Amino acid sequence: MYKIVFYTDRIGVTSNPLLDQLPSYQSLLYRRKSSTGGAKRRGSSRTRLSSSGSGKWGVSTVSRQEERQKAQMEQRPIRELAKTMAEKRRDKTQRLEEAGELSSWRQWRQSTRRNLRRLKDDAKGWLSSLQLWRGEIHVIEGMFGTGILSYFSFLRFLVMLNLIIFLVMFSFVMLPIIIAPLASGNTTYNLNDGSVCSVYPSSSRRGLVIFHEHITDLLSGGGFLEQTYLFYGYYKVDKIQFSKATYNLPLAYLLATVAYLFLSLIWIVKRSATGFKRSLVQDEDRFQSFCNKIFAGWDFCITNDNASRLKRSSLLYELRTDLEEERIKQKIADRTRKEKCRIYAIRFLLNLFVIGVLAGCFYSIYVATIFSQEAQLNKAKGNFIVDLIDEYLPSIVITMANFITPLLFSVIISFEDYSPAFEIRFTLIRCVFMRLTSVGVLLFSLWSQITKCDEEPCICGYNHLLYSCWETRVGQEMYKLTIFDFIIIVAVTIFVEFPRKLIVKHCDCGLARWWGQQEFAIPQNVLEMVYGQTICWIGTFYCPMLPAICTIKYFFIFYIKKVSLMNNCRPATRPFRASSANFFFLAVLLIGLALACLPVTVSVAQINCSQACGPFVNYTTSWEVLPTTVSHMPDGVQTLLFALSSEAFAVSFFVVTCLAMFYVIALAGAHKRVINQLREQLAMEGRDKRFLIQKLCQAQRPSAIKSAGSNVRHRSSSSSSSYHTSFSNNFDEAVFLAHSPPDSSTHV
């Protein structure tokens, strides 16, 4: 057996010569000595260091840590312990014996805590079993890994978000109108006052209606759909008088709009917090990145052979990408001034070209919107196809721009000489800007028509001759964008991806092999979802039923994308990293929410309400309902609300927020320093292990030379035992007894 030798210094503190040579001990001793002022203080520092240790060999510290870990293990349930069944049974028996010695009060507390823990676990299991698409998502995860799983999880989140938004709008806007006749409520409507601004001509078709006209109405939101719960203009109720309360529908409509936007913000920020924390602790060292990919990069959820091959190729691609990034960084560092000027000139010209392409797309959307509005106002009975194209012309132009520009951006980025990772991010940023800004250009085109009159200023505050109910017209445009986006997704899956799969599978020509199977590109699919959700956020104010339509739309898209992934597509060869996928998706969604809040805020606070439809007929703008309602409240409530909206409260709140922000920043800095210290400690432990391995090798060399002959003679009979004996004896003599004692007193 091993003989471990310790020595005791003059103060009586146990010391080990081998452990004193460890790099971590020497480094810590050097820092302690350099931070003290004199020899006496250095001696006392050494005494404290030797007595308490650096966390590796301090007896008291180790004992306290063991006691703490033992207490934590005793509090954990037995089934969560990493032990064998025999050990778990023994622990259970021991715990029951210890519980029998406790008082009845403590026994009741322990049993209550145990039952509550079981109830919590059962509730979590029951709720997880009710989770939407739980089985389908597990199948996708098992076949294609966590990268594609992140897209379908994001799609499920959008389904739940739109369902909650619909429930908010339905509960506070539609439900009171529905139950008012059943609850004997008196409904007060906004009546026509006879002015030119309150004229709202009906758009429903009369007489003999051809079948295709119903299809046009269904796709455009006009005709019989315009005067339904679907659009803003139907809600002409001002107040609903119940038996014990009066329901203010305009106030509820405005507060429900603010509520669904604020709820979306809170939910997105809460979900993105986890991804943001991961992004903060991402590897800063390229060597760590290589180690993580090699030793921890495999996705053990994959069970499909094809998916495993794709995962292997994706890991290979990521390693090549990292090496290429290192090569490009070195290339950038070695660039001359002439090469830098040339690269910057090329990038400047290409970015000017990109700006020109975006400007051309935006101008095309503007012209298409103006032409579509004029064609709808002046249309007569004509061709069904032509009428449908006039209705959907802005949506068609936006879709074509969203389809062409990403292809163009992917070609342009190859000439700008960026790193592969930055190429992907920069192309996605351009595509996000294109998709979301196109919706803003559409709204700007509509509002330029709404607020423009032949005689300035407008009599009603808006162009009542062209748009008697302009909110409904904006809602119809958002409705058409949503429907057309769904039609395009279905059409691409059926008429592009499926035939491409058949051609690649059954055709052996070189062109088909070069074309290849359709890739399931995660970022592009996510951008489609963000684009549709931004339209939903904008359109919900003008089309309260739009969240329900988007819920149904995303529900069917889930199965369409699942079938397409299983049968038509393959995972991308240039994968989007799953570690940062969720945070990127939610960050882009947050940008879409910010863009959606802008037009809704402008329409609520700046543009005059329609005087012929909607709940805000009695107000100049939609926002006026809030101060009007506050003015009818009791004086105490008014004083409180005015104080909360005053400048003094705003300044105080800003100061408190700044102080809290500074505290959080300081706390984050302290945590970062602790993380750096832990990283240094891990690196030092690696040096310690290397030092011990070197000592072990040094101890093995003399024994290998001395016992070479004996090992040859006795190899067949006792090779393992002789090796163990030589190793143990040699380790004792060469490592622990090779040092002369620092003092006459020794302890063996």
UniProtKB/TrEMBL annotation:
It is found in: Membrane. Keywords: Membrane, Transmembrane, Transmembrane helix. The keyword tRNA-binding does not apply. One of its GO terms (cellular component) is plasma membrane. Residues 32-76 are annotated as: Disordered. Residues 469-579 form the TMC domain. PANTHER family: TRANSMEMBRANE CHANNEL-LIKE PROTEIN 7 (PTHR23302:SF42), TRANSMEMBRANE CHANNEL-RELATED (PTHR23302). Belongs to the TMC family. This is Transmembrane channel-like protein. It comes from Scophthalmus maximus (Turbot).
